[in-house]
């Protein structure tokens, strides 16, 4: 009964999410890092779906501004809490949906922390990538009487509008023509530890390509793609789902008068691809008939998994540092651009019956669940 209630709860949650549409934006505020002098956070009030930014007078026009999201996570939110709100989306991959999860934000805002975790990984600090894979393997095991799943992964990096396959072990293929997802090595995996091994290979390959001075990871997009093929054991029908987990290049704006050469080239490419991504997501959110996928390698690569039946989640990361307030506001402006239309629609629905009713049912189920515990 307990499991039935849980399952029911999850289904209702999914329905609420579906009513909200296929694009979600979650905001995560990084905590202050240990060992730094104490400052006041520029993030004021945080609630479940919004945050307030307080601009200190020293950094321009003093003021407060609120931003809304599908979900907001404060600096004390744990990796587990963040994952719990991502899980339903991830699970839909096993039902044949395509899913894209992006980590957006300036360098140092916590993108890699959310997707992978800190350098010293423990079970507790593991990010979305590991938890997602664990969950997929766990769920496919639970369904093994009715479904047979095969899972395989690809790892790619996009640097200066060139796609590199990170799972080519013998030689690094540096294709200037660009690479399509189907061309990149697709490696079958049977457990999370298989994937961790591959991720280490990918990480090494990434390092090989980087010049000594560059912290390349902040200037390239990295993408872990998980393909799932499922066969219904009774009917024999098959389904395919795939999930892209994308740690984007740092979104910081570069002062073009101060950089030259490689740095300028990188900045131009990053800028171009992040705005192309923003354009695509906002066109999808507004249900425009033309979606400009072809303006960057990133959006081209993910075209089949953005829009249509696919589900998109953008984690927008911000830092609490007063110094970063300019970047933070620009990050939040990006978030608004990809989310407002969708959130507006969701708000309208809240007034009507469906979402309200589902929320009530969830509250009832949660109460039932609490009594069981
Ligand atoms: P990015 O990938 O956006 O450049 P990182 O994920 O590397 O940023 O984060 C920068 C630093 O802040 C790292 O040392 C990371 O461990 C730490 N950090 C980021 N987010 C959190 C968080 N939510 N909790 C604790 N530490 C964090
Ligand atoms: Mg990073």
TrEMBL record:
Highest taxon in the source lineage: Eukaryota
Keywords for the protein's UniProt record, in alphabetical order: ATP-binding, Coiled coil, Microtubule, Motor protein, Nucleotide-binding
GO biological processes: microtubule-based movement
A GO term, aspect molecular function: microtubule binding
Residues involved in ATP binding: 105-112
Residue stretches making up the Kinesin motor domain: 22-341
Transmembrane domains' residue ranges: none
One cellular-component annotation, GO: microtubule
Family stated for the protein in its record: Belongs to the TRAFAC class myosin-kinesin ATPase superfamily. Kinesin family. KIN-14 subfamily.
The protein's name in its UniProt record: Calponin homology domain
Native organism: Macleaya cordata (Five-seeded plume-poppy)
Lineage of origin: Eukaryota, Viridiplantae, Streptophyta, Embryophyta, Tracheophyta
